Write a sequence for this structure.
């Protein structure tokens, strides 16, 4: 039976440079992350960027894998720390 756990161990991410982590992402991935952090739905992101909802989901999965987050809340915190969005 396959495990549903992510391929990396669940742990608290150490404090690290958001700039360093942000360099791992493509321009499009940063844009998708920014819109997700603003609370946009997958369909809204897809329509705005002119891509399919499935492509947005693929970007989200890649972002989570690259940054080693397993929750959307973690990604939102990262986006704020990286200056992609603010809490205002």
């Amino acid at each position: 039976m396959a495990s549903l756990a992510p391929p990396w161990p669940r742990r608290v991410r150490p404090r690290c440079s958001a700039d360093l982590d942000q360099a791992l992402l493509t321009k499009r991935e940063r844009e998708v992350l920014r819109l997700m952090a603003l609370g946009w739905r997958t369909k809204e992101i897809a329509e705005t960027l002119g891509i399919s909802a499935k492509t947005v989901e693929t970007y989200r999965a890649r972002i989570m894998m690259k940054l080693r987050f397993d929750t959307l809340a973690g990604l939102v915190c990262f986006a704020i720390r990286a200056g992609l969005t603010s809490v205002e």
